[in-house]
Every structure is written in C-alpha cells, then in structure tokens.
Amino acid sequence: MHASTPDGRRFMVVDGYGLTRVELPNKVKNDRKVMCSDQGALSLDAIGARALVWDDQWDQCTLLATADLERKAFDRFALRGGRLSSDGKRVVSVDGTRVTVTPLDGGEALRGSLPGPVDGAQALSFGRREQRRPRCFAQWALGADDRVAVLCEDGERVRLVIGKLVGAALEVAREVTLSIGGGGPLSLSIDARASATLLLVERGIETVFGLRMGEDGRAEEFSFAGLTMPERRGDEWLSQVSESTVVQCDDAGKRSREWSIADAAHRGAGELIACGEGVYFVPAHRECVIELDKGAVISRKLPAKEASVRRYYTALFPRYDRAGAPFGVQFSLGRTSFWNKGQQVSGSFSVSVGDGSLGSHFVRSALFGESNDGDASALAPFSRGGTGGGGYSEALTRPIDEASVRALFEVCDRERIWLAFGLRWLSDLYERKEGGGTGWVGELSGPPGELQAERALFRAVLAHLCDDSAPALSPRFESWRGPLAGDEVRAQLSRVADRSPWMPCRAFEAVAWMALRVLDPAEAADVLVWMLLDGSERQHTNSSDAERRALAALLAREPSLRERAVNAVKAHAPAPLEWGGDRRDALLAFLLGQQG
User: Picking from 79-93, 130-144, 582-596, which range would have the lowest pLDDT averaged per residue?
Assistant: First the structure.
C-alpha cells in the first residue's frame, strides 16, 4: 500500500513491517506501529499534509502528519475502512451500505446509508467472462469534492455506484450492475473528472482487466499485460509484465517506456509507485525501494533486530503467492507482532477471493497451516501464529475434478507445498458434504466432484502425511485414480511419524471424512474404527472427535454396518491412552449411545 504527495516530494509505503516515508531523494523515516495489508487503505488530503491509514487486519485508523509522522490512533472499529477527505478535516467510512462522516475537530458524526439498487440499471460484464467470481467483497473510493465510487454485492447482484456525498447521504449520479469474472485482487479509484476505474489482476494469465465509467454513463473496458496491480501515471499505466520488467503503457497495452530490474535479489512480483517525475519499485522482500530510472536503491532502514523475521516471511509469502497465481489468489502480509524479545512473532495476511477452485482454497489454507504449525523452519527460531484476512470466500464453487486436482499437484510440486498444511479447509469441506452440513453461501450442492479425482487427492494426502519432504505428486496422478481398499489406507497411516513437530492438528480429521467419501462403506467403517482404536497417539489426540462424527454419519447412512462396528470394538483388546482412559471403552460407549 502506498500514496504520493501531489507536489511529488514524498511518498509513503505501509505494509506488515510498518510505515515508511521517503522524502526525495533519499531521506527515510519509519513508524513501526502503523501497518496494513494491500486490502487496507492509505489516503491523503488534497495537499498531502495529512495521511490516514486504515489497518484492515487490526481494524484501526491512524492519522499522520506527512512532514514528521506525528500520529493519532483512533479506537479500533470506530472508523472502519476510513478515508481522509480532500480538505483533511473529515474521515469518511463506507461499511456495507452504511455511510459515516466523522469530523476531526471533534464534532458529531453524520450517518447515512447507500440508496437501494436501481431497477433497470445498465448491466455489464467485466473480467474473465468464462469464470464466475465466487464473491465480490465491498470496495469503495473517495475522490476530490467528496466524489464517491462504491462496489458492493447485493444478493446475486454486484453494483457499481458513482455519486457525491452531501453530508452523509450519497447523491447517485450513475449505477451499473456488474457480472465479474475471475478471482484476482480488485482495486477501485475515482479521479478528478468523477470517472471510476475498476481494475482486476489475474496473475494466472498475467493480465490486468480495467473498466472505466463516468457520471455520464459511458463505460470503457480495456486490458493489458501485468502481474500485479498497475499504477496510474498521467494518461498511461505503469505495469510489471514479468519478474524483471516494468513498462509504461496505454489502455491497449502499447508501450512507451520500459525498465529492467537488474539485481536478481529484487526480482519478483512487487509494488509500483509514481511520484513526481520518478518511478519506484518495492520488491517482494519489502526491504527497500528502487528508483527505476537510475537503478538507485533506497533502504527502508527497517529494524535490524527483526531481520530474521523478515527473512522468514520473505521466503514464505512469495512462494505461496506463486502457488496461488493460477487460481486468482494473491497474498499480502498485513501485520507482524513481536514479543518476548523477538522470540515470539505472529503475522496476519489478507488474500484475494480466488476463483473458487480446489487450488485457491487449498493454497490459502496451506499458508495458514504453515504459518501456524510449521515450527521446524530454520529461518524461524521463534514461536508464531497466523490469522487469515478479509476478501476471502470459503465456498467451493468449482468441482473437484481431474483438472483441478492436477493443477493443485503441479503447484505443490513446483513450490514444495506440503499438503498436510492445507487440510483444515478440506476437513471442513468434506464434513459439510458428508456430515449433512448446509455449506457456505454460493457453494456447490451435492458431492464435491469426480470420485476418481478425489481418490487421487486422498492418496496424495496420505503420501504427504507419511513424508514431510513433500514428495512429487504429479507423476503419480494416473496410478492414483483407481479404487483403493481400507488396507492401503491403514498401511499408509501406520507410517506417519507420531511425534513429528510438523503435524497440523487437524490433518487426521480430513483423512476421516475423505475415507467416508472415497471408500466402500464397509471399508470406511473398518478404517474409522481402526483410526479410533489403533491409530497413533497423535491421530487420536487431535482428531478423535471428528473421527467419531464421521463414523456416526456413516452409520446413520448405512445402519446395517452398526453391528459390524460394535462387534469389532468389543473384540478389540483394551487400548489405554498415554494421558489416561481407554479408547475401546470410549468408542463402545459412543456407539451404544448412538444406537440408543
């Protein structure tokens, strides 16, 4: 996230490492306590004297003087999504359909709401027409003279509204209904001519889609090459078209200038800034800013004591960003917190909505899992935790078929992603499908997809659980599509290292629900009983509740298997637990209670 002052003398960069103000040519000042992700907001008044940062991960606004970074933090949740008005005297917030205008001099806030949808509004399609966007979380922008553009989801309809604030009421000048395709990040802005511009970046096809609409109702679509969100520069765009190349182009992609990022250490998907006559690039590692015209490197002078933490996130986030690109997923580190003299850290992140496919959900879940459970990394000599961010949909809107499983295997192989880290979401999905849950809004009803594709996915999960080096999956896809027996599942689970520090706590929940889906019912019952009685201590301690729920769902569907399961438990020898109690007695009591 960045913003430049109108005089071209300063720009500000804010991310998970704090806020950096660069006073050109190279005077740098930092504030570690002000943070946000790319889904937050950094706004300036018309003369660039004041700035307002909305930290989307902490839901807090901070007002700063750009000259010396003197700041005032507002209460959390008080000014959700706030933007600074062009006169620098008010904070405007649009939260859903509610509008709040808060004077900074302490006066009473004004409250209003967006008008309802207009019947018969012009309908437009935007983005990848062949790929429906799973969700469209709210976007909005504040321009000069209180001009406002709002993109919001109203049931099945997405509205783009342009108007002007009068007090806290929005006088609508134009409204269209949009059908948006693709799951990449969105950006909405409004310029001095009251034209709203909506941008969508689809890294999987390295394309930026644009829609420009004015108050007069004229709408113009355009597209050009790009990996990341482009930056407006006059009447043209700055766009990163490869990991090492930045161009300046018009709406049709015709290039007028080109810059090369010479140092390999700075290559990768970064952030572009136009300030005055200069063009600047913030690399993915976020440690510096590069002046592209001269190749000069401006250090952000981030705290040296946090270098090991930044190295960890620099290795983690770009890897998952590359993995998510084919599925419309882009991650942004939003907030890092340190305590216990730097021995403990947590990092939160935002993520774009994605295309609703298996890959988009799995990659996001795996980043969450690794940032929480992956304590074996040599780059992370500290305890840590992670939280997800806004702009994400849990709904599976595309089937689990052979193409989606192959695509997931390819990114896991390329970026060395361990499937076990992503099993949190998969466990929830299968429990909703097989356990009778209602599912998420917009999620596909019925079975998740093609059974032979799910068999391959299940075998891949078992293979990675047994080997945390993340062995290659793609070469084995064809051989993994056929039926599998309970003996194969038990043999694989018996190989799992019980004391591995990498083992996510919910890994075996997914195994239980997937077994219910892909195995013959009688085989599934035998596997679930085995997991509850003979599975490792780690399996039982972390997942026994889910395993019992899966067994109950199976027996409710196949009542004839209940006697088989009860007899198997009765015939089993006592199975004492390390922490006391007996697995056999607990399972038998559960089955008999279910029967009663």
Answer: 582-596
**What is the residue whose two structure tokens read 């997942």?**
543
Does residue 463 register a pLDDT over 80? yes
The answer to whether the beta carbons of residues 121 and 159 sit under 8 Å apart is yes
Please name which of 581, 580, 488, 584 lies closest in space to residue 534, comparing C-alpha atoms: 584
Q: Cα–Cα distance between 200 and 273 in angstroms, integer? A: 18
pLDDT tens across 310-323, in order? 888 888 888 999 99
The sign of the CA dihedral 228, 233, 235, 236 is negative
Q: Please give the Cα distance from 378 to 385 (Å, whole number).
A: 16
Is 368's pLDDT higher than 90? no
Over 60: is that where the pLDDT of 387 sits? Answer: no
212 vs 40: CA distance, rounded Å: 22
**pLDDT higher at 378 or 594:** 594
CB-based contact 230:206 (threshold 8 Å)? no
What pTM value is reported for the model? 0.91
pLDDT tens string 487-531:
999 999 988 866 555 677 788 899 999 999 999 999 999 999 999
- Closest to 363 measured CA to CA, from 351, 379, 374, 373: 351
208, 155 Cβ separation under 8 angstroms: no
Three-state secondary structure readout of 260-271: ECCCHHHCCCCE
Rounded to an integer, what distance in angstroms lies between the CA atom of residue 147 and that of residue 164?
Answer: 4
Cβ within 8 Å of residue 483, ≥6 positions away:
455
The single residue listed with the structure tokens 């780059």 is: 379
Radius of gyration of the chain from Cα atoms? 26
- What whole-number distance in Å separates Cα of residue 43 and Cα of residue 35? 14
Q: How far apart are CA 125 and CA 132, in angstroms?
A: 10
C-alpha 92/C-alpha 103 separation (Å) is 9
Q: Is 126 exposed, middle or buried (0-12, 13-18, 19+ CB in 10 A)?
A: buried
The number of C-alpha atoms within 13 Å of 535 and in the hemisphere containing its C-beta is 24
Residue from 445, 441, 435, 477 nearest 458 by CA: 477
Q: How does pLDDT run across 57-81, given as a tens digit for each residue?
A: 899 999 999 999 999 999 999 899 9
Residue 590 in this model has a pLDDT that exceeds 80: yes
Query: 3-class DSSP state for residue 212?
Result: strand
Q: What is the identity of the amino acid at 411?
A: V
